[in-house]
Design goal:
The chain has about 325 residues and is of the alpha+beta class. It contains ten helices and eight strands. The chain has a four-stranded mixed β-sheet with strand order 5-6-8-7, covered by helices on one side. The protein starts with 6 loop residues before the first strand and ends with a helix.
């Protein structure tokens, strides 16, 4: 760490010198323009970027499967590049198809150019138009609705509803990748935090919340997939699962109220309430585990998997409550 002495020039202007090594590494010289970003008692200095947009390139020659190419696109997207150039000696039709499909699963990303040896994708969203809070709020609605519908599909043996739940998981994933991209942007570029309207700590907490909601959606998808493999179940088991779902979903619901609360006292109250609700879910899960031993082994195992997914939903809600408490805590 280096220190500098603040000086006053002209009677009212505070000046401080920049470390030479930092200036050299960032190509800052006499006449260069730098940006100042204030975050409470912090003042961040960054070189001014006239272009403002970044381009990332990746050689995808050795990537041939849909999974590999999808991961490549998503990695570049989450990394925060505004333009993504995927290059190879000769782009095959299957590679082009996989890249197009991957771009459609990400918010704001479009294929803008295709060449014999490359595809160019661009993020068409303006950072100032992004709202990480709105994305997380949307994830809350979709993931918890998915969970309710998944349990209903399981107990009612409704394959159409189960397939609908599985399809909706893509919507949650799109929002999850968006929140991850926003976090990367604000960590790397303080200007992005100013445009988005949230400081970096808040973006981190919201992205952590989004991760928990994405996991809830994954478990809803898992229950829906089990619904496709399972026929009718006893009514007693159906009612127990419905009740467990209601109690489990209440934990992330209450936790999200805490995350989005404007008042810190209210946030602490709601987060504490959410954490206390986990015990009820745990007791209900244990009761169901005891009940399912009455059924045949295959059905008991399936019911156990559904019970576990619902129990984990409450745990993820507890993690959201922890984030809410951290957001409400006073700054040191």
């Amino acid at each position: 760490m280096e220190t500098r002495k603040v000086q006053v020039t002209g009677g009212s202007t505070y000046t401080v010198s920049l470390p030479k090594e930092w200036a050299t590494d960032n190509e800052v010289a006499a006449g260069s323009v730098v940006e100042f970003h204030s975050e409470e008692d912090l003042l961040l200095v960054t070189p001014h970027d006239d272009e403002g947009r970044t381009e990332g390139r990746m050689d995808v020659t050795g990537l041939t499967t849909d999974h590999e190419l999808t991961r490549a696109v998503m990695t570049m997207y989450v990394s925060g590049f505004d333009a993504i150039v995927l290059e190879t000696d000769r782009m095959t039709a299957s590679q082009r198809r996989a890249i197009r499909d991957a771009s459609q699963r990400l918010v704001g990303l479009e294929v803008i150019e295709e060449r014999p040896n490359a595809m160019v994708l661009q993020d068409l969203l303006d950072s100032s138009e992004l709202s990480i809070q709105n994305a997380v709020t949307r994830m809350r609605l979709v993931s918890l609705t998915m969970l309710e519908d998944a349990v209903e599909a399981f107990v009612e043996d409704d394959d159409a509803l189960a397939n609908d739940v599985i399809e909706r998981d893509d919507d949650v994933d799109r929002l999850w990748y968006l929140t991850s991209r926003v976090l990367r942007q604000v960590l790397r570029n303080p200007t992005a935090a100013t445009e988005i309207g949230f400081d970096r700590e808040t973006c981190f907490d919201l992205q952590s919340t989004a991760r928990q909601l994405e996991r809830i959606a994954d478990h809803a998808t898992k229950i829906a997939e089990l619904a496709l493999e399972t026929g009718e179940i006893p009514e007693a088991a159906a009612e127990s699962l419905r009740e467990l779902r209601r109690e489990a979903a209440q934990v992330p619901e209450t936790s999200m109220d805490a995350i989005l609360a404007d008042d810190s006292d209210e946030a602490v109250e709601r987060a504490t309430e959410a954490r206390s609700q986990i015990g009820t879910v745990t007791e209900r899960s244990r009761a169901i585990d005891a009940e399912i031993h009455e059924y045949d082994a295959e059905l008991a195992q399936t019911l156990g998997l559904v019970t576990d997914s619902l129990s984990r939903t409450a745990d993820y809600g507890g993690n959201i409550a922890e984030s809410a408490l951290q957001m409400a805590a006073p700054s040191p």
